[in-house]
Specification:
By secondary structure, this protein is an all-alpha fold. The chain has one domain (about 5-690). The protein has helices at about 5-25, 35-75, 80-115, 120-155, 160-170, 175-210, 220-255, 260-285, 295-325, 330-355, 360-365, 370-385, 385-405, 410-425, 430-450, 455-500, 515-555, 565-580, 585-640, 650-685, 685-690. Helix 16 (about 455-500) runs parallel beside helix 20. The longest helix is centred in the C-terminal third of the chain and has 56 residues, at about 585-640.
C-alpha cells in the first residue's frame, strides 16, 4: 500500500522550493534610489542586530532546559528524544522567524519602488515577500516532522506495528515544547520592541511635535520600522510554526488512541501537504487594479485564500475516502468544520477591525468627544467582538466531535477535534502570506515618506499599509482561533499521556478541589501574563519618549530638517529593553504547569489548562480586535473623515491607537502561544508531576 506519509517530505520540498523561487523574484526587483537603499539598510541592520542578540540570550535558556531534560532522561522520567527535539524544535522555529524577517527587510524598499509604477506592482512584491514567509514556515514544519517520523520509525522498527505507532505518537507529541518556547520569546520580545518604538514615535512625534507619521525627523522612526519586522514577521513566523506543528502532532497522537494507527497518523500530514499545493495555486490569483479601494484590495487577497480553501475541501474528501474508507465521512466533516471555522473567524475579525465596516467607523466617531471616549469605545468593541469567535469555535468543536463518532467512541470524537485543528491550519501558507504582507507594506510606506517620494506613491503605499492593518488583524484572529483548537487537542493529548502512565490518576470532576483550584489559577494566568507584557511595553516606551524628546531639544536644525537624528540610539534602547523585559513573561509559560502540577497534581494541571485556554482565547480576541479597530479608526480619520490629519479627532485617535498598540501586537497575539506552551510543557512533564506531586 502507498505510504501517505511520503506526502509530508514532498510537501515540505515543494513549499521550500516555491519560497526560494518567490524570494529570487523579490530580490530581482530594484530597491530604488540611493536614499531608499540607505534607509532599507538601516532597518535591515537594526533587525539583524536585534535577532542576533535575542537568539544569543534565548540560547542560554535552551542550554539550561536541555540539561534539565537530559537529567530527567537519566532519571527515566521522559523519552530519550525529548531534549534533542526540544533544541531542534526551537531551532526550526527561530529559523522560520529569521528567514521571514530577512526577506521582509529586503522587500520593503523594493515594494516602495514598485509602487512608483503601479498599485498592483507594489502589491505583488509585498505579497510575494509575505508568501516567502508563509511557505518557509510550513515547509520547515513539514520537514522537521518528516525527519523525526522516519527516524523514529527506524528506531522502533523491532516492535510490533501497533506498539510502534503508540511509541512514535507518544514521543512526537512532546516535540513541540522547543518550538513553543522559542515562539513565546520571539513574540513577546519582538512585541515589546515594536510597540515601545511605535508608542514613543507617535506620542512625541505626532501628538506633541505635530509631525507626520514616518517623518524622517523623528528619531524613533527607524526603530518603529525595525520593530515591524522583529515583532510582526519574525515573531508571527515562530508563533504559527509552533501552531502548525502542534496541531499535526497532537492529531497524530489522537489518531493512535482512536485505533487508526499509522494510517490515522498519516492523515494530518497528507492533509497539510494538500494545503501546501492548494496555497501555491491560490497565490497566483492575488492581483489588483490601479486605484482599487480597500474592499477591492481585500477581495484580491481573499480570492487567493478562498480558492486555496476550496481546493483543500475537495482534496480532503478524496483523501479521507482513500485513507479511512467510505465509512468515515464524519472525519471529512470534522476537517471541513475546522476549515470553515478559520475562514469565519478571519471574516468576523475583519468586520470588527476594518474601516470599511460600521464598528470601526462608529469607533472613529467617538473621537469627536476626545481620547477618553474613543478608548471606552475601543474596549467595548473588543469585548463585543469575542462573542462570535467563541460561538464559531464552540460549534466547530461540537460538529467535529460528533461527526467523527464521539457519541459512540470518545477517542474517535477527540480525534475529530484534533483533525479539525489541522483543517483550520491546512491553508496556513497563504493565510500567513496575507499576514506577513502587512509589515512589508508598512515599512514601504515609511520608506516612501522618508525618501520623499511623490504624493501618488504615498497614496499607493498608504492603501497597501491600510490593507496590511486589516490583514494583520485578520491573521491574528486566525492565529488565536487556531490556537484555541490546537490547545484543546493538546489538552486531550495531556489526558492521554497521563492515562498511559497511570489510568487511575485523573478525576476531572469540577467538585474535585485540585481541579477547582486549577481552574482559578488557569483563568488568572492570561491576565497576569498580559499585565506583565503591557507593563514591559510601558517601561520600554518611556525610555523612547525621553530619548526622542531629548533629541528634538538638543540637536540643532533637527526640526527644520537640516540635521539628521540619531536613529541608532532608539534602536539600541528598544533592543536592550526588549531583551530584558521578555524574560519573566516567557518563563511564566514554562514554569506555571510544573509548579501547579507539583502542588495540585495532574488534576490541578488539567483544570489549569482548561481555564487558561478559555480565558486566554477570549482575552486574546478582545485585545487584538480592540487594538486593530483603534488602529484603523485612526487611519479612517487620516483618510479625511472627522477633520482628517492634524485635527483634534485625529489626536484623540492617535491616543487610542497608542493604547491599542500593545493590545494587538504584544499581549494579544502572545497569549495564543502561552495557552499552547502551557499544554505542551504539561505533556512533557506529566511523568514528573505524577511522581512528585504533593496531592495525588
Amino acid at each position: 500500500m502507498f505510504d501517505l506519509m511520503i506526502l509530508a517530505p514532498i510537501g515540505a520540498v515543494a513549499a521550500l522550493a516555491y519560497a526560494f523561487i518567490l524570494s529570487r523574484r523579490v530580490m530581482a526587483q530594484s530597491e530604488g534610489t540611493d536614499l531608499m537603499k540607505k534607509i532599507a539598510a538601516s532597518i535591515r541592520s537594526g533587525a539583524n542586530a536585534y535577532l542576533k542578540r535575542q537568539y544569543k540570550g534565548v540560547s542560554v535558556f535552551f542550554v539550561i532546559m536541555g540539561v534539565v531534560l537530559f537529567a530527567l532522561v537519566f532519571a527515566g522520567l521522559v523519552n530519550v528524544f525529548v531534549p534533542v527535539a526540544f533544541v531542534v524544535g526551537g531551532f526550526f522555529s527561530g529559523l522560520s522567524g529569521f528567514l521571514g524577517m530577512r526577506i521582509a527587510t529586503n522587500a520593503n524598499a523594493r515594494t516602495a519602488n514598485a509602487a512608483q509604477h503601479s498599485l498592483n506592482s507594489g502589491l505583488k512584491v509585498a505579497f510575494s515577500a509575505g508568501a516567502v514567509m508563509g511557505f518557509t514556515v510550513v515547509g520547515l514544519g513539514m520537514l522537521e516532522t518528516s525527519l523525526w517520523y522516519y527516524f523514529l520509525r527506524f528506531y522502533y522498527s523491532a516492535l510490533p506495528v501497533d506498539q510502534q505507532a503508540q511509541m512514535i505518537a507518544s514521543a512526537m507529541v512532546t516535540f513541540g515544547m522547543g518550538a513553543s518556547a522559542m515562539a513565546l520569546f520571539a513574540r513577546v520580545g519582538g512585541g515589546i520592541f515594536t510597540k515601545a518604538a511605535d508608542v514613543g514615535a507617535d506620542l512625541v512625534g505626532k501628538v506633541e511635535a505635530g509631525i507626520p507619521e514616518d517623518d524622517p525627523r523623528n528619531p524613533a522612526v527607524i526603530a518603529d520600522n525595525v520593530g515591524d519586522n522583529v515583532g510582526d514577521v519574525a515573531g508571527m513566523g515562530a508563533d504559527l510554526y509552533e501552531s502548525y506543528s502542534g496541531a499535526r502532532l497532537s492529531a497524530a497522537a489522537l489518531a493512535v488512541s482512536a485505533g487508526f494507527g499509522f494510517t490515522g497518523m498519516a492523515l494530518p500530514m497528507a492533509l497539510a501537504a494538500i494545503g501546501i499545493f492548494a496555497s501555491i495555486i491560490g497565490s497566483f490569483f492575488v492581483k489588483t487594479e490601479e486605484g482599487a479601494d480597500q474592499k477591492k484590495l481585500l477581495g484580491s487577497l481573499r480570492k487567493g485564500t478562498y480558492i486555496s480553501s476550496i481546493l483543500v475541501a475537495v482534496g480532503a474528501y478524496f483523501l479521507c475516502n482513500l485513507v479511512l474508507g467510505a465509512g468515515h465521512t464524519g472525519i471529512y466533516v470534522a476537517i471541513l468544520s475546522g476549515l470553515i471555522a478559520g475562514i469565519a473567524i478571519g471574516y468576523f475579525t475583519e468586520y470588527y477591525t476594518d474601516s470599511s465596516y460600521k464598528p470601526t467607523q462608529a469607533l472613529s466617531a467617538t473621537s469627536e468627544t476626545g481620547s477618553a471616549t474613543i478608548i471606552i469605545g475601543g474596549l467595548a468593541l473588543g469585548m463585543k467582538s469575542t462573542a462570535i469567535p467563541v460561538l464559531v469555535v464552540g460549534v466547530s468543536v461540537l460538529i467535529s466531535y460528533y461527526a467523527a463518532g464521539g457519541s459512540t467512541s470518545f477517542a474517535m470524537g477527540l480525534y475529530g477535534v484534533g483533525i479539525s485543528a489541522v483543517g483550520m491550519l491546512s491553508t496556513l501558507a497563504i493565510t500567513l502570506a496575507t499576514d506577513a504582507y502587512g509589515p512589508v507594506a508598512d515599512n514601504a510606506g515609511g520608506i516612501a515618506e522618508m525618501a520623499g517620494l511623490g504624493e501618488e506613491v504615498r497614496e499607493r503605499t498608504d492603501a497597501l499599509d491600510s490593507l496590511g492593518n486589516t490583514t494583520a488583524a485578520t491573521g491574528k484572529g486566525f492565529a488565536i482561533g487556531s490556537a484555541a483548537l490546537t490547545a484543546l487537542a493538546l489538552i486531550i493529548s495531556f489526558v492521554d499521556q497521563v492515562n498511559l502512565i497511570d489510568p487511575t490518576a485523573l478525576n476531572l470532576s469540577v467538585t474535585n478541589p485540585p481541579v477547582l483550584i486549577g481552574l482559578f489559577a488557569g483563568g488568572m494566568l492570561p491576565f497576569l501574563f498580559s499585565a506583565m507584557t503591557m507593563e514591559a511595553v510601558g517601561r520600554a516606551a518611556q525610555s523612547i519618549v525621553v530619548e526622542v524628546r531629548r533629541q528634538f531639544k538638543t540637536i540643532p536644525g533637527l526640526m527644520e530638517g537640516t540635521a539628521d537624528p540619531d536613529y541608532k540610539s532608539c534602536v539600541d534602547l528598544c533592543t536592550k529593553s526588549a531583551q530584558k523585559e521578555m524574560i519573566l513573561p516567557a518563563l511564566l509559560g514554562v514554569v506555571s504547569p510544573v509548579l501547579v502540577g507539583l502542588v495540585l497534581g495532574v488534576n490541578g494541571v488539567a483544570g489549569m489548562l482548561a481555564s487558561s485556554t478559555v480565558s486566554g482565547f477570549v482575552l486574546a480576541c478582545m485585545m487584538s480586535n480592540a487594538g486593530g479597530a483603534w488602529d484603523n479608526a485612526k487611519k479612517y480619520i487620516e483618510a479625511g473623515n472627522h477633520g482628517g490629519k492634524g485635527s483634534e479627532c485625529h489626536k484623540a485617535a492617535v491616543v487610542g491607537d497608542t493604547v491599542g498598540d500593545p493590545f494587538k501586537d504584544t499581549s494579544g497575539p502572545s497569549i495564543n502561544i502561552l495557552i499552547k506552551l502551557l499544554s505542551v510543557v504539561a505533556i512533557v512533564f506529566a511523568p514528573v508531576i505524577l511522581a512528585f506531586s504533593l496531592i495525588k
